[in-house]
From TrEMBL, chain A:
Keywords for this protein: Endoplasmic reticulum, ER-Golgi transport, Golgi apparatus, Transport
Any Gene Ontology biological process: Golgi vesicle transport
Keyword Transport: yes
Subcellular location(s) of the protein: Endoplasmic reticulum; Golgi apparatus, cis-Golgi network
Free-text function comment from the UniProt entry: May play a role in vesicular transport from endoplasmic reticulum to Golgi.
CDD domains: TRAPPC3_bet3
Protein name: Trafficking protein particle complex subunit
Higher taxonomy: Eukaryota, Viridiplantae, Streptophyta, Embryophyta, Tracheophyta
Subunit organization: Homodimer.
Main location: endoplasmic reticulum
TrEMBL record, chain B:
GO biological process terms held by the UniProt record: endoplasmic reticulum to Golgi vesicle-mediated transport
SUPFAM superfamilies, alphabetized: Ligand-binding domain in the NO signalling and Golgi transport
Similarity section: Belongs to the TRAPP small subunits family. BET3 subfamily.
Record's protein name: Trafficking protein particle complex subunit 6B
Pfam families: TRAPP (PF04051)
PANTHER family: GEO08327P1, TRAFFICKING PROTEIN PARTICLE COMPLEX SUBUNIT 6B
An annotated GO cellular component: TRAPP complex
InterPro entries per UniProt: NO_sig/Golgi_transp_ligand-bd (IPR024096), TRAPP_component (IPR007194), TRAPPC6/Trs33 (IPR037992)
Amino acid sequence: MAPLAPRSGDAVFANVERVNAELVTLTYGAIVRQLLTDFEEVEEVNKQLDQMGYNIGIRLIDEFLAKSNITRCVDFKETAEVIAKVGFKMFLGVTASVGNWDADGTECSLILEDNPLVDFVELPETCQGLYYCNVLCGVIRGALEMVSMKTEVRWVRDMLCGDDAYELKLKLLEQVPEEYPYKDDE
Amino acid sequence: MVREVSESCVDSVTMEMVAAYCGRFYANKQELAARRIEAIGYQVGLQLAERYTKERPRFADHLEAIKFICKDFWSELFKKQIDNLKTNHRGTFVLQDNRFRWLTRISLDSPLPTANGSPKESSTTSNDAKSAQAAGMHLYFPCGIIRGALTNLGVPCQVSAEVANLPACSFVIRIKG
């Protein structure tokens, strides 16, 4: 049996290069602000943030696999736990909790009580409908796609909009079989 | 305790921001892309300076403000100070960082020419040009940060950057007025 994947990202986080979180928080805030100016429609900004996240996720997964010492997850439940406890910890220094599983184990919630992206953030009335942290949805979707999982990730609760927590819905759409580049040998 | 995140968060977000503005949003208008990226940096610099100077007395003059950028501000952001500060005493300051953190992971498309390649003089020149091009778009963001921070400290200025030999880089500050 494969060794159990680490259940905590504390050790991984302790070993990566870290910076003052303010820089990320303020930079991300300035980007959202600029996108709102450039695109005007919050729908479009949500889309762009998700796309940026996706592009980040497809790269970040390499660093995650290289530094986290994670072994292959046996099922999607384990994948979700690893994202919540190791992935979030390793990059953002916080952990999420996993809950609300559906019957067939393909959909769950990731709940964040603490989120460095939103320190100092307040949304004005004009930003209704904006998923401020939508970049995170894209990151998870992009990262999972690189390890053969097509997913749908969306926000269902957002403290910036008055909810009592940050909750992401993570749904597994399909497991893509791995394709090896056999053609190289032809 | 100061809240921390992994350095790759900053790297990823800034790299993707530059890629999005130069590649997708303003692919054929690099000048506009540059201005947007600089504006994002300006906003960040403005807010960072506000936070980092909360418990300090006012700066007596421009030089003091610039020294603050070279030492404390740079250390907060990059865990090192600016390596060299020069001025012409007429409102222009050159801040040199011999190993600018945000340029340390930039690589050039083509490998550096070997000894049996073109003559040394010209290969150095073309490498410089390539470095400048590769780094160019990534430097509008830190230029904006410096301009924002100095503006917050009451020093209106223009900031540009020069790269000769990656990852070394110089920021040129021209004080207005």
